[in-house]
Amino acid sequence: MADALRPDNETYKFYYEAGYRLWHSLCSSSDTSPLDATSLDIENAFPQHPYFPPQLELDRNSSTVLYATGTSTWETSNGSCNLPPLQIGLTFGVTIACPTAISLQSSRLIDSPNLFDEESKHMLVLTLAWAYVLSARWTEIIPGASTMSYTESVATRDSRDNARNGDGDLIVDLGDITYEAARWWAAILAPEEGWGACIFHNGRVLKSPWSVKLESCRTLALRYNAVPSPLEWHFSASFSTAMAYVLDYAIYHGLQNQSRAAFAAALLLPTRHRISKQVRWPRMHLPRMQRSKPSVEQYLPPWGSNNCQLDRLLALSCNTTGVISLLCSTFIEPDIPCNVCGAWIQGAFAILDTQVAKEPHILAQMLMCRAPNLNFLWLGGILMNVQHYIMKWARPVAFQIDLHSAAWTNSYVSFIQKPVSRTASNATTVQRSDEARLMFLSQADHHSNPPLVPFTPFGSIALKDCILEVQMHVSCPGYHGLRYAGWAWNCRNNTKIAQDPIESSFTPSSKVDDAVAGHTTIHYDNLDRDRDCSESMTRNMFKWLREADGFPVAERAIREHEWISGGWSSEEESAAPEGDGKSTTNRQIGPWICRGITTRCNTI
Questions:
Q1: What pLDDT score was predicted for residue 171?
Q2: Which of 26, 218, 292, 546 has the highest count of CB atoms within 10 angstroms of its CB?
Q3: Closest to 363 in 3D by CA, of 22, 4, 11, 23
Q4: How many domains does the chain have?
């Protein structure tokens, strides 16, 4: 007799091989050559993403973090079906309580990898500089933020006569600069905190999400050709001025590639702060370097000439749940049935756990190729060393699914995003994946949130065993699916500012999946049916599907399966008597009737 949930060995092996081949193909096509950040399309990324308007009304209920809040609208159908749209709220943390500590460490202790050979030595300087620029922009658009300020901590000026290699100061060559630029760089490379971007809230000083402090047993010294005036005479640099200073440094050293990569790393600072308050960076050896040939062309900032694009990226950076959700989704494939998803993941990590794939250049190229629309997020994530945490959460699928970030980046993170299949008018069954989608789209009782499981439920269910909302919309002529339709910020004086999408689609873009079927030697050392996540994913999926209304009798074998029974109480049984195939007759229809009368009269 076939098992109701657990697939046979051949099926399990098939999905293991699929995951293995895909990631083997990605690994085989990667190499250790330096990455080219100039090819990343940061300027045009995520045009759907909302950005903070200056009229925001911040949520101040927390003493440690302030939030920007808003509501998204999602169309659920078109054609003749008048299923109403959904509205889903979301919060963006726009402050942190303490800065992210960046410490210089010996190479064996480092978090941040060397992805750009010798010129990676400039990566720390550029990342610290872009963190200031992001914070300066934050002070211009977040209500209540103070202007940028310098502290008394400064990086010292290098004396050529006393310059030392070895254990001495780390020399940062700035070339010919103005007095004001010298003071700015003295703040950027100062020990501890050299600058501040903050909001005062309930007697506390809350900081911008990109605030940093530099910890090192060796100081950074500045080498430049101008003689600065007294430090206290200089006002802190504005956003536009600071941006110009960073671009001048990149031009002076010929570092457009590294500057763009460092900007991506700075964008990931809030995500790194959420994971860990400290980043260990490799010690630089700038005195031993020969400066690259200066660029003869002028550099645009990584976001291009439109500051609105920067504001989108700034808002994206503040949504750390969304960033983590996007990065974790790289390691899953939502179209795979939940009862075999663990096999695919085991096959994937059989490659990802190899020493070759752990090499930073290789891993970066694999992940950027797998999710090309997220490539600069992955580059920044690896420079901030978040990939180990992401992979740790992705392996058991222990992360939160964020439909907002998925829509804004045109990413595929959950089966729930796919449109409902067309069903014949005389159909007697429906795919469980479509049943789940219609439950969510119709906001059936206890289904107002999407499943926590990104993988699709397997198999089909008799239409007569579905809740009434599903029965109604399976047979209606409308087209059903989740389509992002717009965003509205909560602003001052109880107003809302809408930001409509540029375009909208029922179908998100899938990740790259171009594994070659032939000539790949599969190693089955990681294949372990007793230690995969298929059981927990399947149990969680059926709890979402059946917890409110119970199991129909036709699913008794599923209900009594060991994967399910251990996580279910007797009160959650269906009320239908055994043998009654028409189990919806006795399932919970009272809540549906109430909802139909009070909230869904337009669908009857």
A1: 87
A2: 26
A3: 23
A4: 3
